[in-house]
Design brief:
Elements lengths: L2 H25 L9 E2 L8 E9 L4 H12 L4 E4 L1 H6 L1 H9 L3 E4 L12 H17 L7 E2 L9 H8 L3 E3 L3 E2 L8 H11 L5 E4 L8 H16 L3 E3 L1 H6 L3
Parallel strand pairs: 1-6, 2-3, 2-8, 2-9, 3-4, 5-6, 7-8
Helix pairs in contact: 2-8, 5-6, 7-8
């Protein structure tokens, strides 16, 4: 092998390593380069956090709120700013019912190769809607699609905001049917787990809504009490 070929091979290998590292970092559940990230809470308390992405949506949000009220459970709603602006009364209903309202960006983009100014607008405009709805707790953020590299964590760090990921993805079990989805989600949970659900879209997400009561009952049968992310991370309130 000539020196030129050797250098080309080395450069190609280095590029592959960079791409692999970038892909891993972009999708890492429990790691980011800067700022605070959590993917689960304190494992010494028999609590888990129920989290609901992409709120609020008319009708389906009311259905989720009704289930949580019936079961006397408080959850964390990761909300999209544009949807809160279009349905401010729903965001207010979430807060009035005692749930946590958290930031899921303004337009639900993938935060890859975005400018700091774009990222800041997505976060700040959504946070303004959360405060307008009456929520006064600590600010938490969940990246859409769970995607993040350096820009998003850096902007969040400047604002003192924590990235919240998850360690149990209930949607992984959706294709197995409602009963199996509930059983598998409960089986995967452990003290401190943060459970991800997407219950708000009309059709595809129907399984999440149908499984929610069974998930709550199953968690309690195992001695795990569902709480908000704030309660899980900051202690009982």
């Amino acid at each position: 092998m000539t020196l030129l070929h050797y250098r080309k091979t080395l450069a190609a290998f280095a590029l592959l390593l960079v791409l692999a590292a970038t892909y891993w970092l972009m999708n890492a559940r429990c790691f980011q380069l800067v700022g605070e990230l959590v993917c689960r809470g304190d494992s010494t308390r028999a609590q888990v956090a129920l989290t609901f992405d992409d709120a609020p949506v008319p009708q389906t949000t009311e259905a989720v709120l009704a289930t949580l009220a019936e079961k006397q459970v408080r959850g964390t709603f990761f909300a999209i700013g544009a949807q809160m602006a279009a349905q401010p009364q729903l965001a207010q209903r979430i807060v009035a019912a005692g749930h946590q309202l958290a930031n899921h960006s303004w337009s639900h983009p993938r935060f890859l190769l975005k400018s700091p100014a774009f990222i800041a607008r997505e976060i700040d405009d959504t946070e303004a809607q959360i405060r307008a709805a009456g929520y006064r707790g600590k600010a938490y953020f969940r990246p859409p699609y769970g995607k993040k590299l350096l820009g998003l964590p850096w902007v969040l760090k400047q604002r003192g905001m924590t990235t919240v990921m998850w360690d149990v993805d209930a949607d992984r079990f959706r294709a197995q049917g409602v009963e199996a989805m509930a059983v598998q989600t409960v089986a995967a949970a452990r003290p401190g787990s943060i459970i991800l659900l997407h219950p708000f879209c009309a059709d595809e997400c129907a399984a999440d809504r149908a499984a929610l009561p069974q998930i709550i009952d199953g968690l309690r049968a195992r001695g795990l009490e569902p709480v908000t992310v704030a309660e899980l991370l900051e202690g009982a309130r």
